[in-house]
Recover the amino acids of this structure.
């Protein structure tokens, strides 16, 4: 009887050992359609070879058509990854829609992506998410600033966020002072002129989202950016500095244009210091 049970015991022990083996974490880059609360959006996931990790959720700038958003999301991922010192962070780049919506309405997809990372990424990717940071460039900076009024994270970085003031920007287009854009044309088709319905334009401007920041936020602005951006930048900055319902806000103003974060040594250092200190 003993000889009969020994092979069975060995088999059981071997099976338990095999089933309990921990798989070696792998690195990969994939495009995945995610859904949260019935809102779907494509994301590009760049995962290092670790399973316990912090996440940097990034958002791209404006493009003209949804056929371009995967490319834009890849570019945003590469740009932020290129300046990120911590190579063990997972980067998730959101391909938020641009076409057939009014400016700002893609906050719905941006929020879904954040809540998916917070609540579903662990199970769907087989990982353990630690800290979550948001970063965005241009319109992406607009989105992460708005998200900071909605949900708490470990920190937010907004590079050249905007549009800051759609009343001013679209007003210039209406007067023929600057070239027309699809952003303002869509708003005009729904709301009319800025002179007759300025409140509708202001409600979608980033100047309307300068209170109630739930997490620390770092703003980076190139001082050689476009005149439209720089016209409203001092007012935007002062509104945030006056905020009494915000967590800490930090401003880094540097020489350079709209993408100065990705080339300026000081800006890159402040970007990494902000993440590493939280």
């Amino acid at each position: 009887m003993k000889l009969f049970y020994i092979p069975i015991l060995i088999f059981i022990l071997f099976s338990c050992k095999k089933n309990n083996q921990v798989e070696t974490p792998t690195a990969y880059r994939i495009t995945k359609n995610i859904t949260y609360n019935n809102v779907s959006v494509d994301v590009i996931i760049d995962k290092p070879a670790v399973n316990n990790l912090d996440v940097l959720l990034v958002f791209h700038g404006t493009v003209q058509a949804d056929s371009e958003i995967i490319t834009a999301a890849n570019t945003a991922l590469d740009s932020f990854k290129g300046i990120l010192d911590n190579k063990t962070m997972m980067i998730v780049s959101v391909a938020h829609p641009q076409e057939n919506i009014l400016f700002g309405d893609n906050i719905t997809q941006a929020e879904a992506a954040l809540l998916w990372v917070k609540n579903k990424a662990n199970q769907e990717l087989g990982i353990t998410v630690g800290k979550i940071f948001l970063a965005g460039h241009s319109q992406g900076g607009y989105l992460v600033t708005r998200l900071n009024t909605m949900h708490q994270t470990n920190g937010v970085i907004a590079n050249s966020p905007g549009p800051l003031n759609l009343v001013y920007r679209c007003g210039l287009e209406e007067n023929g002072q600057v070239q027309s854009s699809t952003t303002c044309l869509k708003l005009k088709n729904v709301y009319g002129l800025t002179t007759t319905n300025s409140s509708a334009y202001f409600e979608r401007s980033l100047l309307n989202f300068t209170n109630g920041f739930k997490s620390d936020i770092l703003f980076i602005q190139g001082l050689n950016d476009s005149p439209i951006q720089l016209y409203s930048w001092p007012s935007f900055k002062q509104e945030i500095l006056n905020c009494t319902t915000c967590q800490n806000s930090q401003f880094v103003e540097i020489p350079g244009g709209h993408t100065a974060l990705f080339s300026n040594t000081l800006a890159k250092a402040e970007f990494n210091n902000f993440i590493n200190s939280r």
Q: What stands out?
A: The two ends are 62 Å apart (CA to CA). The domain at 25-165+207-276 is CATH 3.40.50.1820 (Rossmann fold).
